């Protein structure tokens, strides 16, 4: 299976003109962290809790599981296993860490699969599955993942979307017990950190490659902490913004962009680049679900008398 997958990548490599490379570079960019967070935030600022949190629960758990699996299997990237594989340089630059499973494919499958599952309409699955397939194929065309990598990601997304959607629905039916989910998330994040930190690694393993898993731990803590605070104290309702909802999205995405670009650099002198990246991973969901919704209260329109 491994050799077949590498051979398939070499076949794709021989049939990818610059136009194809540029097209799939554009596709794969939408699977990167900023765009995943921007889409999740936009869902929240436009439509409120149900869609965004169902997606967010699945994204947080899927990202943690992907990071843990990468550090468990320690599968090298395709060009490390076969020197004749030449990935597209722009894609290779962002392909940090181990190969299995694909983070881009997993995040895309969880995001759009979770959204289609939350909409609960059969037609929502058509564009979702097409986009998920296109993202998975882009990772192979660009030479940064094998078919096994992307297939593993797609299979992983199915139970994550199903299970975490059920967890979120349970919290809405039992709001007084939501603290149990927060506590469970903290325990899972702690267990994942301990597992990745102390798991025996192959002699040739690069310890830097575990940073993605540690960032996922902090991202999960930030997300579930933000969700708990927002549901308990803010209860953001975008309908109260009226026509300002689009303004909320534009400014919210701009704020997220500034946060992602600048917060690690601001914190690095005190925490180091690695520590700053972990704190930034926790801060992103806090901005989306707590800070920006709190600030948007000033734009809420009074209820008609």
Fold topology:
Blueprint: H1 2-14, H2 18-29, H3 33-47, H4 49-73, H5 78-81, H6 89-93, H7 103-119, H8 122-141, H9 147-173, H10 178-198, H11 211-234, H12 245-295
Helix pairs in contact: 2-8, 3-4, 3-12, 4-7, 4-9, 4-10, 4-11, 7-8, 7-9, 8-9, 10-11, 11-12
Describe the model.
- The chain has one domain (2-299).
- It is globular and about 65 Å long.
- The protein has helices spanning 2-14, 18-29, 33-47, 49-73, 78-81, 89-93, 103-119, 122-141, 147-173, 178-198, 211-234, 245-295.
- The chain is an all-alpha fold and 305 residues long.
- Helix 3 packs antiparallel against helix 4 (49-73), helix 4 (49-73) runs antiparallel to helix 11 and helix 8 runs antiparallel to helix 9.
- It starts with a helix and ends in a 10-residue tail after the last helix.
- It contains 12 helices and no strands.
Helix content: over 70%
Can you tell me the number of structural domains? 1
Q: Whole-Å distance between the termini?
A: 67 Å
Helices and strands, in N-to-C order? HHHHHHHHHHHH
Task: Supply database-style keywords.
single chain; 305 residues; 12 helices
In short:
The chain has 305 residues and is mainly alpha-helical. The chain is built from 12 helices and no strands.
